[in-house]
């Protein structure tokens, strides 16, 4: 018996990084997974690797019609939808005076609006499953502020708040909504950040699988009494460097 037997999940940004790790781990624990991403080749390759328990769908999370198609596809392929992992996101940065408004809007569209559109598109199916779970991947930047990363910080704070409001709305329908707040994780998106640039008390960046474990936990019934909560997984970064 797997921890996620009987679960059907959509995971966005699922073709690489934390999303791919989560997809692999959910399938390993018995779930059936729809990998949503704009990286078609990587997504199809991962779905083929995972076999009959996985499918790939092209999904630009900023597009409402693509969300509706992805949810319909998941239900058609696997019979239901019980888990939504809103993992897709982008990061960009510049000084306030130099921040390009196109960059600002793109971050809002993907990180925040994309999360909202996913919740809206999937809610009916999640309610119908009788035991739904929404997992929103925010960031430690949804808890603190960081120079240059203004759009990223703003959207990740907003995802944190959206998680809590939707959790209260969907609780009577037995759909749980929680957020995960990673610190520096070694993924393609963070490849250009030196390991020692951000002080991490545990002394190293995290690995994608270390966020995948939380996706599995929050997808499974092990977390059945958790909703509206936030889980910081950052090696102690938010707490600061320990005294010696």
Automatic annotation (TrEMBL):
The first-level EC class reads oxidoreductase
Q: List, alphabetically, the Gene3D superfamilies matched.
A: NAD(P)-binding Rossmann-like Domain
Where are the bilayer-spanning segments?
none
EC number(s) from the headed UniProt entry? 1.1.1.47
**InterPro entries from the entry?**
NAD(P)-bd_dom_sf, Sc_DH/Rdtase_CS, SDR_fam
Among the GO molecular function terms of this UniProt record, one is:
glucose 1-dehydrogenase [NAD(P)+] activity
Which biological processes are named by the entry's GO terms? steroid metabolic process
Arranged from A to Z, the UniProt key words for this protein are:
Lipid metabolism, NAD, Oxidoreductase, Steroid metabolism
Q: Which domain of life is it from?
A: Bacteria
What PROSITE patterns is this protein classified in?
A: ADH_SHORT (PS00061)
Lipid metabolism among the record's keywords?
yes
Similarity annotation = Belongs to the short-chain dehydrogenases/reductases (SDR) family.
By what name is this protein known? Glucose 1-dehydrogenase
**Species of provenance:** Nocardioides acrostichi
């Amino acid at each position: 018996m797997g921890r996620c037997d009987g679960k059907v999940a959509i995971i966005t940004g699922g073709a690489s990084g934390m999303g791919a790790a989560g997809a692999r781990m959910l399938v390993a624990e018995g779930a059936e997974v729809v990998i949503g991403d704009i990286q078609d080749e990587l997504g199809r390759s991962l779905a083929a690797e995972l076999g009959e328990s996985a499918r790939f769908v092209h999904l630009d999370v900023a597009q409402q019609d693509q969300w509706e198609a992805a949810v319909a596809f998941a239900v058609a392929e696997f019979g239901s939808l019980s888990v939504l992992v809103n993992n897709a996101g982008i990061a960009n940065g510049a000084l306030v005076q130099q921040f390009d408004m196109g960059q600002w809007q793109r971050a809002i569209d993907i990180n925040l609006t994309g999360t909202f559109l996913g919740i809206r598109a999937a809610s009916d199916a999640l309610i119908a499953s009788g035991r739904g779970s929404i997992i929103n991947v925010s960031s430690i930047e949804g808890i603190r502020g960081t120079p240059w990363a203004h759009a990223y910080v703003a959207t990740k704070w907003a995802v944190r708040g959206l998680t809590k409001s939707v959790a209260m709305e969907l609780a009577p329908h037995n759909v749980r909504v929680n957020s995960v707040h990673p610190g520096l994780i070694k993924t393609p998106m963070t490849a250009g950040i030196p390991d020692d640039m951000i002080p991490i008390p545990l002394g190293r960046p995290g690995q994608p699988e270390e966020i995948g474990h939380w996706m599995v936990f929050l997808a499974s019934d092990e977390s059945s009494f958790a909703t509206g909560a936030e889980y910081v997984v950052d090696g102690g970064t938010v707490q600061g460097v320990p005294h010696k």
